[in-house]
Amino acid sequence: MENIQLGIAPIAWTNDDMPELGAENTFEQTISEMALAGFKGTEIGNKYPKEPSVLKKYLDLRGLQVASAWFSAFLTTKPYEETEQAFIKHRDFLHAMGAKVIVVSEQGRSIQGQMETPVFDQKPIFTDEEWHHLTTGLEKLGTVAAEKGMTLVYHHHMGTGVQTTTEIERLMDNTDPSKVSLLYDTGHLVFSGEEPLTLYNQYKERIKHIHFKDIRENVAQEVTRQHDSFLTGVKKGVFTVPGDGMIDFRPIMSAILESDYRGWIVVEAEQDPAKANPLEYAIKARKYIKEISGI
């Protein structure tokens, strides 16, 4: 247990993809409420200061650390060099903040940010050539991350070319474990229709970062039935915090503890903060994790 740290993402307070959600919530309110709820880490949102020394002072006052931050790769649609240049800048910022992992998600042909595109009906399917660009590019980025003693963790995500179990398996089978690790996200797996416990056990040696989010089953069914987009699903409340939805986190947490996982578990449940008060839900998540794990 001493090897696991608990964090929470700012997306519950203010949504970078839909700025109207939580526009009124300030950076300082966000991190203060994270600390008040009992978390020790945060990921990075657009309202966060971009200068490491400035951000570090704000976080130190509240006993918070940076767990990681999202990076959008375009390995399937743009020249590798463009992604690498942006990645190095991102890597250096995270390294200055003391983070050990870099969250990467391939956004080539992604529909996750398209408000009108049905998330299930029009999910991108990569060609063999695109898979080659993705896997070789990720290995190169993993090498770049290792230059600073950091680890690339790949974020499977709804509305992208790496969403399903089959796609995650293809990514893992075709990348070097010493260069590419896996971010394990409960909410994206269950929303997609995957079996989260099976996948955790399958890749526990390669999982170096974890996102905990829950799913409201009735909303997920509605998203499918009404051919909604990913962002529409978020606005409707498909995601919630652990313990508030359909996922049984007890066996998942048991597997995590038994696997001697070392790293962050980050609560990342994007909702409309006008409907789901961020502090209230952060406290609810923290209490639930304590209840099922003792952490």
UniProtKB/TrEMBL annotation:
SUPFAM superfamilies in alphabetical order: Xylose isomerase-like
Molecular function, one GO term: manganese ion binding
Catalysed conversion reaction: scyllo-inosose = 3D-3,5/4-trihydroxycyclohexane-1,2-dione + H2O
Pathway given in the UniProt record: Polyol metabolism; myo-inositol degradation into acetyl-CoA; acetyl-CoA from myo-inositol: step 2/7
Pfam families per UniProt: AP_endonuc_2
Single biological process term from Gene Ontology: inositol catabolic process
InterPro entries referenced in this protein's UniProt entry, alphabetically: IolE (IPR023952), IolE/MocC (IPR030823), IolE/XylAMocC-like (IPR050312), Xyl_isomerase-like_sf (IPR036237), Xyl_isomerase-like_TIM-brl (IPR013022)
Keyword set, alphabetical order: Cobalt, Lyase, Manganese
Superkingdom per UniProt: Bacteria
E.C. no: 4.2.1.44
Named cofactor requirement(s): Co(2+); Mn(2+); glutathione
Stretches assigned to the Xylose isomerase-like TIM barrel domain: 34-291
EC class name: lyase
Gene3D superfamilies assigned: Divalent-metal-dependent TIM barrel enzymes
Family: Belongs to the IolE/MocC family.
The name this protein goes by in its record: Inosose dehydratase
Organism of provenance: Enterococcus rivorum
